[in-house]
Each structure stands twice: as structure tokens, then as C-alpha cells.
Design a protein that fits this description.
- The protein is an alpha/beta fold.
- 50% of the residues lie in helices and 10% in strands.
- It has one domain: NAD(P)-binding Rossmann-like Domain (Rossmann fold, 3-Layer(aba) Sandwich).
- Strand 5, helix 5 and strand 6 form a beta-alpha-beta unit.
- Helix 1 runs parallel beside helix 2, helix 1 crosses helix 8 and helix 4 packs parallel to helix 5.
- Bound molecules: NADPH dihydro-nicotinamide-adenine-dinucleotide phosphate and 3-Dehydrosphinganine (VSD).
- The site of 3-Dehydrosphinganine has 16 residues, from helix 6, helix 9 and helix 10.
- Keywords: Endoplasmic reticulum, Lipid metabolism, NADP, Oxidoreductase, Sphingolipid metabolism.
- InterPro entries: KDSR-like, NAD(P)-bd_dom_sf, SDR_fam.
- GO terms for molecular function: 3-dehydrosphinganine reductase activity.
- It is found in: Endoplasmic reticulum.
Length: 312
């Protein structure tokens, strides 16, 4: 961070939403290996129990508190209840690092959306993290706990494309929220970070691929994808170094540096190089994406007729 001192999770209570699967679980394991007290939160109890067993194996010392809590965090009340439960083993003291990984994507075409699916999209991409940030900030400020809030957005908060209309807006919104909080929470010495991962091979990714339009999958294949362990290691490293925008891999770095605006930078030299490279190649890549979408028209109209959206 400033003065070169890295954040050390040892002995700190880290609270991880979405900690039963994918990136959240991988992050929980890294934090446990590094001596943190870890609370994971998700809805499904069976998966939480299994995750806790894995987490136990990552324990670094006998004194660490490793717990799992079943709550839905996509409401303020749910987030408050989860934080309260996780605070109990610590005499009511709230966690000092919040890793907000809860979320899901259901890619599909815009004309197939309804008011309900769009609201659901915001619920899983935005509110599932925003409410925990709200409940957590209130508690940290009341208790005088100086800590960290880490959002997990997506590279789809830097750009978007066909199929992601129910998801991308919420991930962009998380960026807006993180920008606001990075500024405001300095009042309380709470650091804010936001990570923008590319494709991550997780159970959630397998689930979203069940509804993903074929054209979306095809365009995405440019991105080789990362394992949850790689993404979690990148988030951990970024948080340790005090980076505000955290990206892992050259694709994320290119988009991040090309859209940084006045956001705090990671490295003036590297970000300038990535931005220069992005200035040249991003518009060219985008043209190929537009071309792929146009080539898909005929197949798409057939799809719309087959699913009954258009009369035969
Ligand atoms: N996989 C990918 O390609 C990418 C994912 N991301 C983002 O990374 C984050 C993690 O995704 P991923 O690593 O794929 O993990 P998974 O999709 O495999 O796991 C998601 C986790 O979030 C939990 N969760 C979801 N909704 C809620 C809720 N309302 N309340 C509490 N817990 C909830 C799930 O448990 P349960 O269902 O039991 O509640 C599970 O533990 C998400 O925010 C996702 O949008 C970003 C870029 C790419
Ligand atoms: C010169 C620059 C070339 C750039 C190439 C860029 C390729 C980008 C491919 C798109 C990746 C989409 C990832 C979606 C992640 C996500 O959030 C969903 N899986 C939802 O979970």
C-alpha cells in the first residue's frame, strides 16, 4: 500500500459472501491459509457445509475461527443478519474485511426480457453486493472498525455485448458505487477495492452457459478464461498492494487502463502502456465483434421464430 506495507489478513476477520463456491471459496481458502478468521455466507446450506470442510483443510493455525452462515445477502435485512451472526464469535465486533463475491448471471437476449427478469438481473448482479456494503459500512462506522470492502464486478463493467443486458448494467452500477465509496469511506479509513474478472470456470459459469446465446459464447471464446484460484489470487494480490481497480490477466488490464478516467491508478507506467495498446487494438477488436453479431442475424431470426417470439 502506501509506504510499501502490504495488507496482512493474519488475525483479521474476513467476511466472504458467495464463499461456498467459485471465486469466493477460492478467496476464503487463500485467506484461511494466511491466518485470517473467515466467515463465509451463501444460501444453500449443503454447499456451505462442504465448503467449510474444504476451508478447514486450509487452516493455518488452531486458533482461527472458520465459520459458515446461511443467509441471502440481496437485501439490507439479510446482509445485516449475516453480519450480526458472523460477529457473534467476536463478541459482537463486526468483520474488518468484506469480500463481496455473491452474484450470478443469466445471459439471454434483450427482447426476451420482462420487467421481472430485468429486476432479477439487478438483484443478482448489483444488490447482492450493494446491500452488504451498506450494512457493513454502517456497522464498521458505528463500531469504529477500520477495514476494507472488496466488490467483485466483471470485465463486463468496462464494455458489454449481445446477451448480457440483464447482467452488465448491474456490474457497471457496482463500479459506480465503488467509485463513490472509494471517495466517501476515506472519512472512516475504510479502503474500497473492486475487481473485474474475465470468464472464470466455476459452477456459476456452468449454470449461466445453460441459457447463454450461442453468439455470446462464441464472442467470449476470445477470452481464454481463468480458474477461480487464479482470480482469487489476483484479488488477494491487488488488495494487498492497495489497488482500487483490480484486474487479472491482460484483457482485464487493457480494458481497465483504457477506461480509468480519474480513478486511482495501479501503476502510471504499466497503465499507460496498456492504455496505449488498448487505444490501438480495442476498436479493431470491437469491429470484429460487431461483424460476428451481424453475421448471426439470419440464425437469430430463425431462433425468434422457433421460440414463438415472431410469427412463423
Ligand atoms: N464465473 C464467471 O465467469 C464470472 C463471475 N463473475 C462474478 O464473480 C462472482 C462470483 O462468481 P463465481 O466465482 O462464478 O461463483 P459461483 O457462481 O460459482 O458462486 C456464487 C456464490 O454466490 C452465492 N450467492 C449467490 N446469490 C446469493 C445471495 N443472494 N445471497 C447469498 N449468497 C449468494 C452462491 O451460493 P448460493 O447460491 O447457495 O446462495 C455461491 O456461493 C459473482 O459476483 C459473479 O457475477 C465475474 C466475472 C466472471
Ligand atoms: C485488444 C483487446 C482484445 C480484447 C479481447 C477481449 C475478449 C473479451 C471477451 C469477453 C469476456 C466476457 C467475460 C464475461 C465474464 C462474466 O462476467 C460472465 N461470465 C458472467 O459471469
Amino acid at each position: 500500500m502506501f509506504f510499501g506495507k502490504k495488507w496482512d489478513p493474519r488475525g483479521r476477520h474476513c467476511f466472504i459472501t458467495g464463499g461456498s463456491s467459485g471465486t469466493g471459496l477460492a478467496l476464503a481458502i487463500i485467506l484461511a491459509r494466511n491466518g485470517a478468521d473467515v466467515s463465509i455466507v451463501a444460501r444453500n446450506e449443503k454447499r456451505l457445509r462442504e465448503a467449510l470442510e474444504i476451508l478447514e483443510e486450509a487452516r493455518e493455525n488452531g486458533g482461527q475461527v472458520l465459520r459458515a452462515y446461511a443467509y441471502a445477502v440481496d437485501s439490507e435485512a439479510g446482509s445485516q443478519a449475516a453480519l450480526k451472526a458472523a460477529s457473534e464469535p467476536f463478541g459482537g465486533r463486526c468483520p474488518e474485511a468484506l469480500f463481496l463475491c455473491a452474484g450470478a448471471a443469466r445471459p439471454s437476449y434483450w427482447v426476451e426480457q420482462t420487467e421481472d427478469t430485468l429486476k432479477q438481473g439487478m438483484q443478482t448482479s448489483y444488490w447482492a453486493q450493494a446491500y452488504t456494503a451498506l450494512a457493513g459500512s454502517k456497522e464498521m462506522v458505528k463500531q469504529g472498525v477500520k477495514g476494507k470492502i472488496v466488490f467483485v464486478s466483471s470485465v463486463l463493467a468496462f464494455f458489454s455485448m449481445v446477451g448480457y443486458s440483464p447482467y452488465s448494467p448491474g456490474k457497471f452500477a457496482l463500479r459506480g458505487l465503488a467509485e463513490s465509496l472509494q471517495s466517501e469511506l476515506q472519512l472512516y479509513e475504510i479502503d474500497v477495492h473492486i475487481s473485474f474478472p474475465p470468464t472464470i470456470f466455476t459452477p456459476g459459469y456452468q449454470e449461466e452457459n445453460k441459457t447463454k446465446p450461442s453468439i455470446t459464447l462464441k464472442i467470449e471464446e476470445t477470452d481464454g478464461g481463468l480458474t477461480p484460484e487464479q482470480v482469487a489470487a489476483g484479488i488477494y494480490k491487488g488488495v494487498q498492494s492497495g489497488d482500487f481497480h483490480i484486474t487479472t490477466g491482460w484483457i482485464g488490464d487493457t480494458f481497465r487502463a483504457s477506461t480509468a478516467g480519474s480513478s486511482p491508478r495501479n501503476s502510471y507506467m504499466w497503465d499507460a502502456l496498456y492504455a496505449a495498446w488498448g487505444y490501438v487494438f480495442l476498436p479493431a477488436w470491437r469491429k470484429t465483434v460487431d461483424w460476428q453479431v451481424q453475421q448471426h442475424r439470419e440464425e437469430h431470426y430463425e431462433y425468434l421464430r422457433n421460440c414463438g417470439f415472431l410469427a412463423m
